[in-house]
Amino acid sequence: MVEEFVTAIPKKSVDFADWYVQIVRRAELADYTPIKGCMVYRPYGYGIWELIKDALDRRLKATGHQNAYFPLFIPESFLTKEAEHVQGFAPEVAWVTHGGDEELEERLAIRPTSEAIVMPMYAKWVRSYRDLPILINLWNNVVRWEKVTRLFLRTTEFLWQEGHTVHRTAEDAMEETLRIFGIYQDLVENELAIPVLVGPKSAQEKFAGAQATYALEAMMPDGRALQCGTSHYFGQNFSQAFDIKFLDSDGEQKHAWSTSWGVSTRLIGGLVMTHGDDSGLILPPRVAPIQVVVVPIFYGSEMAEVIAKAEELAKALEDAGIRTKLDARDEYTPGWKFSEWELRGVPLRLEIGPRDLQAQQVVLVRRDNRKKEKVGWDNLLARVPEILKDLQAALLTRAREFLRASIYRTKEYGEFVSIMESRRGFLLSPWCGEASCEDKIKAETTATIRCIAEQEDAVGAACIACGHPAQAWAYFAKSY
RNA sequence: CGGGGCGUGGCUCAGUUUGGCUAGAGCGCUUGGUUUGGGACCAAGAGGCCGGAGGUUCAAAUCCUCUCGCCCCGACCA
Q1: Is the CB of A207 under 7 A from strand B?
Q2: Could you say which residues 110-139 of protein chain A have a Cβ atom less than 7 A away from any atom in strand B?
Q3: Which spans in A151-250 are helix H?
Q4: Does strand B come within 7 Å of the CB of A159?
Q5: Same domain (yes/no): A32, A105
Q6: One domain, residues A427 and A467
C-alpha cells in the first residue's frame, strides 16, 4: 500500500529536491539558522552522526589510530606552503583579520581542512624513523565558504573527521591510504547500507596537493553521484612543503610520506536520499538513534495495564541493548504516532493494545515494507534483533540493486550524452587519460569522472570523447 | 557568481495585478470535554503590524529604490 498518511510532504518521485528538504526538517534532523549557509544539527540528526562516529571511531582505534585536537586557526603563511593545496582551497577560505579592535599582523584562516596546521606540528615531532608512523585522527568542524549550500550535503560549516598520518616509506603510506579506504567502504556499506563504487580519482579531480585520491561514490535516486568519502596519498608533497624529515636506519635524512582522509556529515544526507520514501525517512537500524518505537494503544479501562506492559517491554528491549523509545503520550492518537515515527524513519514499531494483552503478544511493523508480525512476549527479545538485522540487509540489497541498475556501459558518445541528459546515473566509458577530454565532457554534459574503474580492461577501446586509445574505463556522472 | 522563483502568525498559503475600514484561512499551539488498532471530534482561546531599510502618497502587505535570506538550474566544492 502506497497510501499517504502524511499530507503536505512532496512525493520523493515527483519533486526530489523539495522532498529532501522537507524530510530533513520535518524529521528534525537539521534546521536553517540566521547564519547564511550554516545549519543546526538537531538532536535526532546529531544522534545519527554520533552513531556513525562511534562506528568509525571503533574501526580507527582498532587499526592503531588515536584522536587528537588541533587549532581552528591556520596562519596564512602556513596555508600557503603547499602550492597546489592553497590554490585549491583559497577561493573558499574564511579569514579572521581582527582580534578585538586590533588588526592582526598576519591573518588567520579558519581551517577548511587541517593539513597546513597538522604538518608543521608533525615536523616538530618527527626526528627518527622510530617516531613513525604517526596515526592521528581529528573529529572536528571545518569551514568552506561555499557559494551554494544544501542541508547536510554542502554547508558553510560542517562536521567531519580528518585523519593525518606520516610514514617512513611510500609503501607504508600507500598501504595506509588503502586501508582507510577499505574501512570507509565497510562503514558506508555495512553501517549506513549505502553501496558505493570505489576507485581512484583522475588527476584533475583529486584533492588539492594529493598524488592520488581514492573515492567512494554512491548513486542518489535523482541520478546524481554523491561522494561519500576520500582517502588521499600525498607522497612527499606535504612533508617537503612542511619539512617533515627523519633520520632513517641507514643514517640518511629523509622526507616522510603522508596521507589524509575524511568523511563528513554529508553521509547523513546520503542516508536520507538513499533509503527514504514518500512517507519519510528510513534509517538503517545500525545508525538509527531509535531502533524500536513502542506505541501503546489504550482504551479507558485497560489503559493502566497496557501502559505498564509497554513500559516493561520497552525496558526489556533497552536492557537487551536495543535503542528503544516508548511513546506513551496521550495527546496523540496511535495513528498519528505511526505516521510520525515513520516520517522519522524508525526501523521497527511495536504496537501493544488490549487485544495483545489477552494474547500475550505484540504487533511488530517494519518501516521498510510495513509488514506486520505478531510476536509472543517470550519471543520478543529474540525476534526483534532478527528483524533489525534483516531490515538492515534488505536496505542494502535494495540500494545495491538500484546502484547496479544505475550503471550504463557505453563506448558511444551520442548515447553517453543522451543518457546523461535523461536518466543520468553512472556512465562507464573508456577514457584516454587526458584532462582535455574530461573538460570537453564536463562542458557538454556537466558530468565528471567520479572514479576510475581499475578492474576494466581498456585495451583496444577508444576514448569516449576523442577516440584515441583508451587508458582506462571510468565512471562518469553528474554529482552533488 | 550567472539565470529563474519565493519571503505575510510555528507551518502551508490567500490577499499585491487595480494602494483604502480592525490583515485572512487551513493545519499546528493553549484550555476543557469526549476520543484512541493508520495523522479523532466539539467548544473556547492565544498568536502576525506582512524579511529589513529608505521613498512616493491623505493612505502601503500592495507602488518605487536599495538590501538580506531561502529554494531550483548552472559554474566551484565533502
Answers
A1: yes
A2: none
A3: 170-190, 237-241
A4: no
A5: yes
A6: yes
